[in-house]
Specification:
The chain contains 22 helices and 20 strands. It is globular and about 75 Å long. The chain has a domain of 193 residues: Rossmann fold, CATH 3.40.50.1820. The protein has 696 residues and is an alpha/beta fold.
């Protein structure tokens, strides 16, 4: 009865705005009630957060002027840029940094009978379209007002729009002719947000500064998210659509491919890039045949590649939970329901998934499913088998401290993970054998003096970073490298990065309002540098911030320009962006480390831990040993390597021998009655990912 009561309380609590601090506190309260023995008495301050990678002496002085930038949308010219697409005249605005076109519709509003259906291209209209001012429209989602005043948002189903920024050096004064000179690259951005929130119209990803610096056209898009974007239905034995939000992305990409030449863009040099679930989307476009013709290059930033596609069965299970939450029984009812009511079912869906032991659906319930057409197998399997667009140039990468949120959230909540709780959590996730092996490997990093009450919160944060981000991305990049069928000067055009540059206080605190993560390269922290958009975050860059941003621009624009992130391909010609070796066995699997005063080539990044994770089969079973050697779990007396934040290995201890390699289905790791340790483990995992929403 005690656990039943806790479950009822959880459903009630998650039904409130789950990314807000009161809900975090509510999770914390429940966890603390589970077992007093899991709470030790050491103070967090005595243990502290693990220190991030130390910089060498900065090349520039690191000062903060404290001034608030002005994000202006006022035109600087009485001559407005004009582009003719078909018979439609599109009028934009010339800003100090670029020509800007806001909220250009690329599809009909998905309302009425078009709700939950694939997007429909707009007919060739003849009226003039004035898109000279932003309206910040966004697709329906639960409001997250950390992005600004909620009253400034235009929440609407008529949200399928894109923004375009064009370098102001291009002459767009005559709509009857395309800009003179060579066409320039196009950088097409897909926003993140767990597939249930986010928008391409936010000032945080305003493309004006990146467009100016990279001498490229920058496009950002909206697509349907949450239940309005990713529900699959079954009526009368027939499946009805699904993956609508992903199809929105495809139609937007097609629109850009067909029309970007009018803006001066090169349709043969379109590079797609995205962060978090946007990076997942980029990866999926590399698999989707209906996307293949519309882009040449790709970058994934912080792709949580551990997430599998939903199966049809599990996707329909999510739909059932939405129907139950809003008291509907069929599609007709859903189409007649208020979009806000449908959207607000999200939290209950996540809670019910969580309580059913479905960890991934408790975090990202509305992700794409295997439709048997675009996606015929799990994405990592397809890359391993070479069933991707293997002639394309791709950058994969993650941030050094993706899940520092773990230790930060637990610090804020006053929760400590002692050894007993830490090991129980890993057994829940991985099973008894692999759970013990993984636990011992990470426990060893605490050193020989760590007692039974040592707080493993920070170490657990590193483990989640490895499991959800670093190691599956390493596997993905290796699969791509070994199955690529394109060579650039004898090298495969696949690249891997680790970003260690951090935004520090006071700018970090002003931008993200979560003090414990400041000074770390946490999840989503690179976006402001990629877009060169401190004004969009209402902060000011230091000189070091500007240098880090320039390094990103040099690499990203190099790939967009000529398919290689080298200095010679970027107009910046930045010495701090050192040569980036392709990620290949021939290059000893070296990657690039992004930091100031300059980037550097990195070897063996998290190698021993990723070898161990590969061997568990948690995110993929490595079967093609001709491309990637089959890893093995550590054996008795084999030393565990503690990879420090500088990438230098330090041997510490040994781990036990596994009896077998367990292939765990994460959605079925719990069944029947749950112990209080298991229940606490599920709750704490959910808590950690909700905190991520503060940064999106």
């Amino acid at each position: 009865m005690k656990h039943l009561a806790l479950l009822c309380i959880l459903i009630h609590l998650v039904g409130v705005n789950c990314y807000r601090d009161p809900i975090t506190n509510a999770f914390v309260t429940l966890i603390q009630q589970l077992d007093d023995e899991m709470k030790n008495q050491e103070t967090y301050d005595e243990l502290g957060l693990v220190q991030r990678r130390q910089h060498t002496q900065p090349i520039y002085p690191d000062t903060y002027e404290g001034k608030q930038p002005d994000l202006s949308y006022a035109p600087i010219s009485d001559t407005f840029p004009q582009v003719k697409v078909g018979n439609k005249l599109i009028i934009g605005s010339t800003l100090a940094e670029s020509h800007a076109f806001y909220s250009i519709p690329y599809a009909k509003p998905p309302t009425g009978d078009l709700r939950f259906m694939p997007p429909v291209a707009i007919d060739n209209l003849t009226e003039t379209l004035n898109v000279s001012l932003p309206d910040f429209r966004m697709c329906y989602q639960i409001k997250n007002c950390s992005d600004g005043d909620c009253n400034e948002f235009l929440m609407t189903e008529d949200c399928l729009v894109l923004n375009i920024n064009v370098p102001s050096s291009l002459d767009l004064s005559d709509p009857e002719k395309e800009p003179e000179g060579d066409k320039i690259p196009v950088m097409f951005y897909i926003h993140g947000g767990f597939f249930f929130e986010g928008r391409g119209t936010t000032p945080k990803t305003d493309g004006r500064w990146l467009s100016e610096a990279a001498k490229s056209i920058v496009v950002t898009i909206n697509y349907r998210v949450g239940p309005l974007g990713f529900l699959l239905f079954e009526e009368n034995g027939q499946l009805i659509e699904g993956n609508q939000g992903f199809k929105d992305q495809q139609l937007a990409l097609k629109w850009v491919y067909e029309n970007i030449g009018k803006f001066g863009g090169d349709s043969q040099r379109i590079m797609i890039f995205g962060e978090s679930s946007g990076a997942q989307s980029v990866e999926y476009h590399l698999l989707a045949r209906n996307s293949e013709s519309y882009f040449l290059r790709a970058i994934t930033e912080s792709n949580p590649a551990v997430f599998p596609f939903l199966t049809v069965e599990k996707s329909l299970g999510v739909t059932d939970r939405v129907l139950e939450a809003i008291n509907c029984t069929d599609v007709a009812c859903l189409r007649a329901s208020d979009p806000e009511v449908i959207t607000n079912s999200r939290n209950e869906v996540m809670a019910r998934s969580l309580l059913n032991g479905e960890l991934f659906n408790g975090i990202e319930p509305f992700r794409p499913y295997m439709d048997g057409i675009e996606f015929k197998d799990q994405h990592l399997n397809l890359f391993q088998e070479g069933k991707w667009q293997a002639a394309k140039q791709v950058i994969f990468g993650t941030n050094n401290d993706e899940m520092v949120y773990v230790s930060a959230a637990l610090q804020t909540a006053g929760i400590k993970l002692n050894k007993k709780f830490f090991k129980a959590l890993n057994k829940l996730i991985l099973g008894p054998v692999n759970g013990d092996i993984v636990s011992e490997a990470y426990i060893a990093t605490a050193g020989p003096d760590a007692g039974p009450s040592y707080d493993y919160s920070t170490i657990f944060g590193q483990q989640v970073t490895d499991l959800f981000f670093v190691c599956p991305n390493r596997a993905l990049a290796r699969f791509a490298s070994q199955t690529s069928d394109y060579l650039d000067n004898g090298q495969v055009p696949i690249y891997l990065f680790n970003n260690a540059y951090a935004l520090n206080k006071p700018a970090c605190l002003e931008a993200f309002d979560f003090d414990p993560v400041c000074g770390y390269a946490f999840h989503s922290s690179e976006i402001v540098f990629v877009f060169k958009s401190p004004q969009g975050y209402n902060i000011t860059f230091t000189d070091n911030d500007t240098l880090a941003s320039d390094i990103f621009t040099s690499y990203w624009s190099g790939l967009a320009e000529c398919g290689n992130p080298k200095k010679a391909c970027s107009n910046l010609q930045l010495d701090a962006a050192v040569d980036w070796p392709p990620y290949s066995l021939e290059n000893n699997w070296d990657n690039i480390l992004i930091d100031v005063p300059h980037s550097e080539v990195q070897s063996n990044y998290r190698e021993d831990f990723c070898d161990m994770w590969d061997a568990t089969g948690f995110y993929v079973n490595i079967t093609n040993t001709t491309t990637t050697p089959k890893p093995t779990l550590p054996q008795t007396t084999t030393s565990v390597t503690n990879i420090t934040t500088t990438g230098n290995p330090q041997t510490t201890t040994s781990v036990p021998t596994p009896t077998t390699t367990e292939n765990i289905d994460i959605e079925k790791t719990t069944s029947g009655a749950r112990s209080k340790h298991q229940f606490g483990s599920i709750l704490i995992f959910q808590l950690l990912f909700y905190v991520l929403l503060k940064a999106m």
